[in-house]
Design goal:
Blueprint: H1 14-31, E1 33-37, H2 38-57, H3 60-69, H4 73-86, E2 96-103, E3 110-116
Antiparallel strand pairs: 1-3, 2-3
Length: about 120
């Protein structure tokens, strides 16, 4: 039973879901804005908030935790050097913005643009 488990399963097994979230997070931190479905955007937003929160903390353990999640080491360096500095004064959370972007042509899935604030 899944009582009070609020994680979006994205209709995938656990290993595929984790890989998809890692890929989306890496791409978003590299590009600063990506186009995806609304479900994927809502699923990756808490992960991005967690990663940026760790980067703002800035210690060695936080860097290792982020490096274990993000695929690209250059993105980890950029996250701790530039992105964390941008959000030092911001309270915890709320680092992403999701904007609706119509519907996908093939299956009419709602699209969204997720971007760093």
């Amino acid at each position: 039973m899944r009582h009070q488990i609020k994680k979006n399963r994205m209709n995938r097994p656990a290993d595929q879901r984790k890989a998809a979230l890692r890929a989306l997070a890496t791409c978003l931190l590299r590009e600063k804005q990506i186009n995806t479905t609304m479900a994927n955007a809502k699923a990756v937003a808490p992960e991005i908030d967690r990663l940026i929160g760790l980067a703002v903390r800035g210690d060695l353990h936080a860097r290792r935790q982020v490096a274990s999640f993000i695929y690209d080491k250059d993105v980890v360096k950029d996250l701790f050097a530039n992105i964390a500095e941008r959000y030092k004064e911001r309270k915890s959370g709320g680092f992403t913005r999701i904007v609706k972007d119509g519907f996908r042509r093939g299956d009419n899935a709602p699209k969204a643009i997720i971007q760093l604030v």
